[in-house]
Amino acid sequence: MDNGALRRAGAQIARVQLSFAALSADNPVKRLPRSPRRPRPAGFWTAFEDRALYYDAFRAENGRDVLLVGPTPLNLRAGLEAARYSALPSGAALGAELFPSRSTMLTRLADVPDDASAVRVDAFGEIFDLAIQPNFSASLSDARILFTINKNNRLEWVADWANWHASLHGTDTVILFDNGSTEYTIDKLEATLAAVEGLKTVIVIDVPHKFGPIDTSVLVTKFYPRFLQISMTNLALRRFGMRAEGLLDCDIDELAWAGGQSAYERAELSALGVVRMRGRWIEAARAPDAPARHHAFRHRLADFRHRLSPSKWVLDPRREWVRSLEVHPYLHRIHGAPPAARKHDDKTVFFHFKGINTNWKEERTTIKGVDIEALVEDEDLQAARQTL
């Protein structure tokens, strides 16, 4: 693997660069939210990504095209459709095809010359030159990839998460998008992951951009402004995972379980190459002297509420339908997938730990208001731990 790869402990660490472009601060043009005239608190506007156009530009897996991945354009779409795209240094004009969805967009620049080192986008009265980054899909052929976005999760949590999936599912590659952690450096994250037995490749990518707010002013899909998170999910597939055996979407506070089978194998053997997992909330109750680690939490609510966690998925990206650029993996389902891909697998779940959280979104790590008598040990979680 190129692009600055090095070895540390047992894993190869790949140093990866992204090509970012944003409207300048003095440009009067900016992205607006849906229903822009509705009132919103000041904090929404501070967190909303109104300037970023592209988070990355890279060769497509087919070697001919270049893909740009960025936030959904919303009101900027007409301007991007009218933009001029060219290859550098030749200046050859390029045709652009836009593939937007609710939170992210892929732009395909077709038949970019082999000797092109960058692409130029002339739009909104500005010129943006983006270095063409390499595609890693070939070097990650048949890899079992686990990925997520991270900010300030404890290093021991990151290690436990990676170890679980390496031990129980055969994960050999971790891609971690770090959203500006302040508790440690990228080097620390790389070293933590490289020490996990079974991992062959570790990729930690610095993405210090706006994460995005929740938009309570719209009636549905209030999480749509989480442009960065969804775009990185798209990037994990298109730049790294197109030839992988599988992509597993689990956050640091989520651990997958397939009854003793690998979740990647479940996806590979499925009809469409995708397994959708139901989530199961594990409460933050633990022994007073137990550290706040995944293994300290064992209990869930006995009633239906433990089943209210949103779903996650595992994908075999080698299926033909995945090649369509209208397919965009989101957090809880894959947009553009065949309708049958929404069906849940009856043998694969993930445990969602309330106690593994920095409380960045809401208070989860206390058990205030939880009836301890209403908790039961989760038998599947205990069975999974016995196989470690």
Structural class: alpha+beta
Please tell me what the overall shape is.
globular
Q: On the 0-100 scale, what is the average pLDDT? A: 94
Major β-sheet profile: 10 strands, mixed
Strand order of the largest sheet: 1-2-15-14-13-16-20-18-23-17
Q: Helical percent range?
A: 10-25%
Low-pLDDT ranges: none
Strand fraction: 25-35%
Rg, Cα atoms, Å? 21 Å
| Terminal CA distance | 30 Å
Number of helices: 7
Number of strands: 24
Structure in words:
The structure is a single chain. It contains 7 helices and 24 strands. The strands form 6 sheets. It has a 10-stranded mixed beta sheet with strand order 1-2-15-14-13-16-20-18-23-17, sandwiched between helices. A 4-stranded antiparallel beta sheet has the order 5-6-10-9, with helices on one face. It is globular. With 388 residues, it is an alpha+beta fold. It has helices spanning 42-47, 77-81, 155-169, 186-194, 227-241, 263-269, 379-386, and strands at residues 5-8, 11-14, 21-22, 52-54, 56-59, 66-71, 84-88, 93-94, 96-100, 104-109, 118-123, 126-131, 144-150, 173-178, 201-206, 246-249, 254-257, 274-282, 299-301, 312-315, 328-329, 334-335, 344-353, 375-377. Helix content is 17%, strand content 29%. 44% of the residues are buried.
